[in-house]
Every structure is written in structure tokens, then in C-alpha cells.
Amino acid sequence: MLSEIVDIMSNCRHCVVLTGAGISAESGVPTFRGQDGLWGKFRAEELATMEAFVANPTLVWEWYNWRRELMGKVEPNPGHYAITQLEKLFDRFTLVTQNVDGLHRLAGSERILELHGSIYRNKCASCNQPFADDLHIDPDSIPSCASCGGRIRPDVVWFGEMLDPEIIRTAFEESERCDIFLSIGTSALVHPAASLPAMAKRRGATLVEINLEQTPLSHVVDYFVGEKSGEFMPRLVEQLQGREASK
Ligand code: BJW
Ligand code: ZN
Questions:
Q1: Same domain (yes/no): 78, 65
Q2: How many angstroms does the Cα of residue 13 sit away from the middle of ligand 1?
Q3: Residue 191 among the catalytic residues
Q4: How far apart are the C-alpha atoms of 134 and 138, rounded to whole Å?
Q5: Domain total for the chain?
Q6: Which helix (H) or strand (E) holds 23?
Q7: Tens digits of per-residue pLDDT, 125-155?
Q8: Are residues 203 and 223 in the same domain?
Q9: What is the per-residue pLDDT for 45?
Q10: How many A from CA of 11 to the centre of ligand 1?
Q11: Ligand 1: which residue has its CA nearest to atom 39?
Q12: What is the rounded distance in angstroms from the CA atom of residue 236 to the CA atom of residue 223?
């Protein structure tokens, strides 16, 4: 199957990669769903919604501080690095990530659309104004916005919130135009991100999914690769680079 994917990809010019929490799992960042997932210990509705923040901002900040600390200690893995190399092999390339951990940027990827924000930024919960990116917000004494007095929150996208319109518009445009789309390490459950691969496929792109488990996307894809992204992606890139060198 690898050689078939390489055959197809080496004739493609425009690649879009969508990543989810699974790409960072081998770095030691817990995924959201599944047995070891974050949501196994905490219910999403308790923590990642505005309602939760209004009801218990201290609990929400304790959770984000814990995740910031955890994410600050980990490093990109071979899956992240392989994607930085993939970027160099196409005329046009866009990495769309649902992750807030910043590991793609740390690895060296350049053209990134962060759909769900960044855990390392803060903003006002009332007027959305950016707030100094202080990584140690005291959960018992949450700072207030200088403009409107609103509470400071992490600059991530919670359930029921709109994504940045410019970022999601670009993600859809790139997905509609690409000829190869890779969906890596995402359960493909959370929209609108989960709509991008099917959109690409409808517009004629070849769709490849790399995931340890089947997802709602798996019956739609052209190729399902049931391997760890940190193991498969470096092999894929190595083969593509070999093809490029012999052209
Ligand atoms: C490996 C691996 C290895 C492990 N190698 N693989 C259309 C239909 C239905 C519902 C909706 C819809 N449109 C909108 C909605 C509502 C909602 C939604 O999608 N709900 C569904 C759950 C049903 N969406 C929203 O609310 C979005 N907003 C929106 O649409 O605004 C418009 C609107 C407003 C008001 C009303 C209605 C519409 C916003 C979604 C925001 C999601 N936010 C979070 C938290 C971010 C902040 C934070 O991190 O703290 O984003 S939730 C969480 O899920 C996080 C993730 O980015 C996201 C996706 O999770 P992901 O990355 O897929 O992780 P997992 O854990 O689910 O999967 C990991 C996968 O990796 C697994 O499959 C493993 O097998 C695999 N894996 N190791 C390869 N080594
Ligand atoms: Zn404000």
C-alpha cells in the first residue's frame, strides 16, 4: 500500500494535511477521546465550553495550567518532523491542525492553519482582546481585561464557538483545490474540521487516512493506514524524497 500511495503522491502538486491529537500522542500528549484520552478523566462539557468557564473558571484554569505544563515539556516526534519535509515536496502545501500544542511550529512547519487556537495564548472572555501570554494564570485570582474588565481565558476554540472565519475559510479553500489530502491522527468527529477530508474527496482529491483506529471517515477514504503516524510518515516521506531525487 505504501508504494501505491507514493505513486499517487509523486504525481500530485497540491497537498493538504489535517492533523489531530493522535500526531502528538507519540510525544506524550494525551489524546481527547479513547481510554487514555483527556475526556476519559474530564468530561468535555465540564471544561471546554464557555458555560463551564462561567460556572467554574478556577477548575477550567487548573486544567489548562496542567496541560500547558505538560505540553511545555514535550517535543515534536518523527511524525511532526516528517510533515515539515513533506511541505518541501509540493508546489502548494497547507497543514491544517486541530491541535493547540504548538508542536508543528516547533518542528519547523511553516504554512500552518491552527483551527482551534493555541494553548499558549490568552484572551478576554468578553471582548476577545489578546492578553499578555502569561503562562501562569493563578486559578484563584484570574486576571481581568484592561479594556472591559472581563475574565481572561485561554485563546482556544471551545464547543459551540465559531472558529476564526479567515482560518476556516482558507482551510476549506485549500481542501477544495488540493489533489492529495492526508488525515492524520484525528477521530474525525469534531466539526467543521471533520468536514474537510470529505470535501476534498468530493472535489476529486485522493484521500489517505493514518490512524490507529477506524473513524467515521474510514469508509470514505481511498487508503486507510492503520499505523502510528510517527512510524508511517517518515517512511512515506523517505520514499517520496527518493522519487523526487530520481526525477
Ligand atoms: C493515532 C495515534 C498515533 C492516537 N498515530 N493515530 C456538524 C455536525 C455535528 C456537530 C457539529 C457540526 N458543526 C458543529 C458542531 C458542533 C461541534 C461538534 O463538532 N460536535 C461534535 C462532537 C458532534 N463543533 C463545534 O462546536 C465547533 N464550533 C462550530 O462549529 O462553530 C459553529 C457553531 C457555533 C454554535 C453552534 C453550532 C455551530 C468548535 C469545535 C471546537 C473543538 N474544541 C476542542 C478543544 C480545543 C481546546 C483545547 O484543546 O483545550 O478541540 S474539543 C477537542 O476535539 C479539541 C480537538 O482539536 C478536537 C478534535 O479531536 P481530535 O484531534 O480528533 O482528537 P481525538 O482524541 O478525538 O482523536 C485522536 C485520534 O488519534 C484517535 O482516532 C486515535 O485513534 C488516533 N491516534 N494515537 C495515529 N500514534
Ligand atoms: Zn475585554
A1: no
A2: 28
A3: no
A4: 10
A5: 2
A6: helix 22-25
A7: 999 999 987 778 999 999 999 999 999 999 9
A8: yes
A9: 62
A10: 31
A11: 159
A12: 13
